[in-house]
Here is the input.
Amino acid sequence: MAAVLRSAILRNVRVPVVGNGSKVVSSLWAHRSSYVRSMSSHDDHLERSQVVDRIVDIVKSFPKVDPSKVTPEVHFQKDLGLDSLDNVEIVMAIEEEFKLEIPDKEADKIDSCALAIEYVYNHPMAS
Amino acid sequence: MGAPRAHKLSGIQKQVLSLYRGFLRTARSKTPENRAHIESLVSAEFRKNSQLIDRKNFLHIEYLLRRGKKQLDQLKTVDSVRLSSSNVKLSDTKN
Here is the structure.
């Protein structure tokens, strides 16, 4: 089957140099796999950098936070001196920003920017 | 509540945070003015209690959790427009 396909491709493809033949075939395969990927729901996924920027902004605008201390790795309670109630408030602000509802069990684990970013980035419904 | 504790939350801490979250979620469905009012009241109350009560005083904490849940249930009813400060004090005139 592959042999038939290969000869069909080679028959129809004009290649200037013989050595480029395999390159053309592999780029065709690459094109084919990217075509398949575009059919999946992962295309409307948020860019990681967008998620990072939006979450960092939320944390920076939290009234009790010193914005200069906020980085994508910052830990809410250990680095920013917040308490667990503030933690709840921040996670809820993130819920609103990305239009998510985060269950208690997961929300209790999110205690840093890094974990918030991972959660949102991996969530299929984040927007 | 200020000093950083061990990473894992105790069962009772989780209940407290769950109740806090419940209040904040319910506040979202109110008008912006009422929402801000509820948030500042609830935030002040929770923080005040966290200072006043020993974290090992499970009896008192559980009492407050029960009372808080009742107040939250009242808040959730559609015609309950705002949380008045009298709901938050110790005396409960409804019973």
About this structure: The helical segments of chain A are 2-12, 21-37, 48-60, 84-98, 104-107, 113-122.
